[in-house]
Amino acid sequence: VIRCRAAVAWAAGKPLSIEEVEVAPPKAGEVRVKIVASGICRTDDHLLQGCFPHGEFPVIPGHEGTGIVESIGEGVTYVKPGDKVILLCLPQCGKCIFCLNPEANYCLKTHFASPQNLMPDKTSRFTCKGKQINHFLWNSTFAEYTVIPECAVAKIDAAAPLDKVCLLGCGFSTGYGAAINTAKVKPGSTCAVFGLGGVGLSAVVGCKVAGASRIIAVDINKDKFAKAKELGATDCISPRDFKKPIQEVITEMTAHGVDYSFEVIGTADTMIAALASCNANTGICVMVGELDAGALIPIDPMLLLTGRTWKGTLLGGWKMRDAAPKLVSSYLEKKFNLDLLITHTLPITKVNEGFDLLRAGKSIRTILLF
Ligand code: COD
Ligand code: ZN
Ligand code: ZN
């Protein structure tokens, strides 16, 4: 058992507290990782607010982490102590029907219907002050040490800077893959990205790398525009600057609507606006954002009848264990720049400050260091 620090959420709506926790050794098929860095993602905030489906307290949040394998459980062969890894919120078991399908990435080892508050054997590896603490998405990266199933880590190049490539664990891969894999953006095409948080800006990067000639970035917070331009956006617009609906504005700007649109906010109105912003016939709209559990949106089926395609994406469509090492290489070869997405770096002891920055719209990504 290792005693170390972790940020524990005791109840919904309360700040995190830095506690000393006990981390049990990994059981069969599990690995214990010394966390080096972890990004703060909007989904961690959903959990803290009590809005994450099946999220249970007390819990150690965090799911955008990197670290070094400290020890391995029985039967683990994929990694050994000392290996650098990215922790994955979508595993790749390699055996299920979707892992065996080259087009798919939704590993059934963790279909989202089954809560991941505990390890696969339904027990926890964390205790604090005599109480059992829940895991989050099997990751719980806001701890100096965590335990995770072997199928949910990706082994990466020893040269990878862990304080940067942690973004590949969730935000960057999600937005970038939405453009590259899910939409399959073509050179010379037009794109619109709704929402310029860490994930939306990563979609902008994906559109740019894919060779889009026009990338329209949409956000109500104009402070995000400078960064969007730096990353490749050609036009930045705020819906608040127009009387008519933003989908009409985009349709006029592009004659018939964009080739590809991305919803990276998670509201009903922007989901409909993004769909209506892509052209009526060959337009493809990718939904990245998520509505509150159980919420529905009304849409006019005519939007689809004329030929539009409406798609979802999970972690950008990547089979993450295979993709993570390649994404790391692309980053090291400077195919894209993760550093521009990192606006703040804080020690884990200042985790609440990191959430305040996110809620105030002042950060893109904050990296916590351990
Ligand atoms: N119109 C335009 N822009 C808006 C509007 C609006 N009505 N409302 C908010 N925005 C802008 C905000 O100003 C902000 O800049 C941006 O939208 C949202 O950014 P963030 O920083 O809050 O969020 P991200 O980029 O970290 O995450 C966005 C998601 C949509 C991915 C996230 O909230 C979500 O729904 N996650 C679940 C789905 C998923 O796949 N997540 C990845 C794994 S966790
Ligand atoms: Zn996330
Ligand atoms: Zn699988």
From TrEMBL:
CDD domains with a match to the protein in the record: alcohol_DH_class_I_II_IV
The keyword Signal is annotated on this UniProt entry: no
Cofactor: Zn(2+)
A biological process term (GO) from this entry: retinoic acid metabolic process
Domain Enoyl reductase (ER): 13-369
Record key words, sorted: Acetylation, Metal-binding, NAD, Oxidoreductase, Zinc
One Gene Ontology molecular-function label: all-trans-retinol dehydrogenase (NAD+) activity
Similarity field: Belongs to the zinc-containing alcohol dehydrogenase family.
Designated name of the protein: Alcohol dehydrogenase I
Phylogenetic classification of the source organism: Eukaryota, Metazoa, Chordata, Craniata, Vertebrata
